[in-house]
Amino acid sequence: MKKLSHLLIVLTLGLFSQFTLAQVERSQLTSGIENREPTDDLEGSVWGQVDEMKRVYFFTQVTGLANQQIIHRWLYQGEEKAAVTLNIGGDNWRTYSSKSLPHYWQGKWQVQVWQGDLMLITHHFEVSYPE
Question: Domains of the chain: which residue ranges?
Fold first, then answer.
């Protein structure tokens, strides 16, 4: 009986640690990626020009998710415009997705980072195309 209870504790801790060790170390909205690193920090504002298609990137560094997947969900005014599945190849992994933002998609955006049914983080920003 004692061995069985120890086995149950070990299995429970192993299962629980799988969820508690996974985390987002860094995330950033940026206008570019070089060598798997963001080139700048757009924070909460993206400015474009009416005659151009603005592209932005969402950089994410995660730990504890080797050989699993995360999803970047791009939402415009609450409506999902893209869901990008990203494979995580190691315990400390940098990855990113991008979204093209036409001038008629001005307004409030967010990028959500999901792992399975769990939302890890969300980042809000606003897109403007001044006249």
Answer: 23-128
